[in-house]
Amino acid sequence: MPGGTRLRCQSPEPDTPRRIRSRIAIAAAIAAAIFTLDALTPLDIAVAVLYVVVVLIVAPICSRRSMIAVCCALMSMTVIAFVMSHGGTYAAAPVARCIVSLAALAISGFLTLKNIAATDVLREQVTLLDLTSDALVVYDMKRRICFWNRGAHALYGVAAEDAIGRAPHEIVRTAFERPLAAMLAELLRTGRWEGELAQTCRDGRELIVASRWTLQRDAQGHPLAVLVTNNDITQRKRMELEIERQQQEIRAAIDAIPAMVWVSSADGRPVFVNERWSEFGVPLDRIGDSWHTLVHPDDLPQMQRDWRHALATGTSLENESRVRRGDGAWRWSLLRATPLIDELGHIVRWYGVTTDIEEPKRAAEALARSESFLAEAETLSETGSIGFSVPRFEMFWSKQAYRIFGYPDDAEPSLQAMLARVHPDDHARVSSLMKTAATDRNDIDAEFRLLMPDDDVKRVHLVAHAVAHVAKTGGEQSEYRGALMDVTEARNVQDALHRSLAELAHVTRITTLGELSASIAHEVSQPIAAIMTNGDAGMRWLERDEPQLDEVREALNNMLRDARRAGGIVQRIRMLAKKSAPNRVPFDLNALIEESAVLVQREIGVHAIELRLQLAQGVLTIVGDRVQLQQVVINLMMNAIQAMASTTGRPRRLAVCSSCTQANEVRVDVEDSGPGIAEADLQRLFQPFFTTRAEGMGMGLSICRSIVESHGGKIRAYAQPGLGATMSFVLPNSSSLLSVAVDGTKV
Ligand code: ADP
Predict the structure, then answer these.
(1) Which domain of life is it from (predicted)?
(2) Does the pLDDT at position 1 exceed 50?
(3) Which of 134, 260, 335, 660 has the fewest Cβ atoms within 10 angstroms?
(4) Residue 643: CB within 6 Å of ligand 1?
(5) In a mutational test of the pocket of ligand 1, which residue from 639, 699, 727 has the highest number of ligand atoms less than 8 Å from its CB?
(6) 49 CB less than 6 Å from ligand 1?
């Protein structure tokens, strides 16, 4: 900038050729006029001094050289004019005027040359300023623009001619973060200001510029102008904003991850943790120093070992440890970390994620526990789980199912493998059952035999029901889920039970021997009496003078018939008769009832009867023959079951109740919801051979009565036709029975 109080700072615009030509013409005309005046007029003044005007006119368009040439030409013209006007006489005064003119020309030429040199420097500087891409603007203290470089033109789209002389706000609208007055005050105080400004151009473009303001002062220190350098950072700023937005988005995403994310330096120092770490109650900036205090003391050594190993080897890390939450609770967490390795193989960063696995861990433990319970239960109950899809029969077998089928655990479960084990006699039935299941999806409940490779036969009970579920491949699919029970043992026990029941019935018959004897004696005496009568008659017919053989034959036939009848009766006695001594001991009647209920469980199930045991509190001790009294209870229960077998349209209920009566007796009631007993039958119920059932013997209740009475008790039947029957028996309680036993009078 040129010095001085006036600021000249507009860019020196080069003159156009026309202007140059007109300047040269004017200068030449003036020079010619001066020369004419100097050479041809006899004026005694230094006219040639006026050549200085010519110098000043051509100065702006002259280079250094041309200016020297102009000065030399003008000085030559001065000398020529002097010679011409003074002829050969050179008086001192004209010579002095000529020298003054030459001196004036030399001085003005010298000064002009200096000025040209300065202007050249300025032009170079301005050209340099124009070369910069920054927008350079200078405005004076009245806020009038006095310099506007090409950068400003390019940035704001406004040419220097339009900008110079105007106020900056007329060219571009700037949003200042503070009032402009305050900013200018700061500029005046400090001489500098810099910051970022948002600007709107005349054409509506939004810009962000990095702006630097510098205050220029004159020699006296007065503020002269403000140099503004604006650098367009719009693009960079937008990118920065975009990067920041993306970073925030990534940060928000990382913070939202339901896991503790962290980044550490190559040597393992945490450099970043996400927001989730705040759940640990430790300030995020201190996690780096205190993470180890969050790890359970029992798990810390292992974690540190794993971490050290990962750091040393650069391998990924995986560790499960308990970590303490902000609420003080220890929760299992899974730590996974992996290194970022540069192209030279050096670890740059470690990226880690710590996930809360408390719930999955608990669920896994619970699952493992329940699986082990299930496996245990399956083993104990000899029940395997079995599942299969239909119609494709993709099968699942539990371990116990494998054991039941006798296959190794790694065998492929399949329908073929299952059918291969089914007993040949049951094969057709089972395969048709499975085929039907594939189409009708009905529940499966079947019992069949398996023939094992060692020829062992197992009896199994398969129950399964179909459930619909969405298949992996989409669409609904049916799957059977069920249980395969090895009932071999149970069936063996059941068979044994039936054998026992048969034996029990046999024992029943034995115990009634006394009673039967009386009945049978009554029955046998009648045919014997008839035999005797026929014998007598036959003798009489023989002893006649003329024996009547036909009559004898008839008597003998009658005798044979009656003897056969008697023989049959005797045969019955024989079959029933076996000696057994009563065995009386104290026992718990409640336990006996429960045991009896188990023995009749099969019949209860077969006839879909609801059994209820309502037993007296605690132990109900009785002294008696346990086997005989069990016969009584079983008999009464079986009678009730048989009576209800044909009951339809109402629930079949059987209740066995035991109690202590006020009369110091033990009472057992067997109630049913069967057809009840007709009033007339109630009287005959306990008589031998009274039965209303086609296949009945009519001995059960009479035997029961004899057993109960032999124990000093009583048995009765209560019934209302259509409302069920109750058979009750009472026995003296244990103490009285014991005393009876000790007396020996009844036992
Ligand atoms: P059986 O059972 O061989 O017929 P019982 O002496 O045990 O011989 O029974 C005699 C009869 O008593 C039965 O035929 C039946 O008519 C009747 N009875 C016994 N218990 C009941 C009962 N709970 N409900 C209805 N009738 C019964």
Answers:
(1) Bacteria
(2) no
(3) 660
(4) yes
(5) 639
(6) no
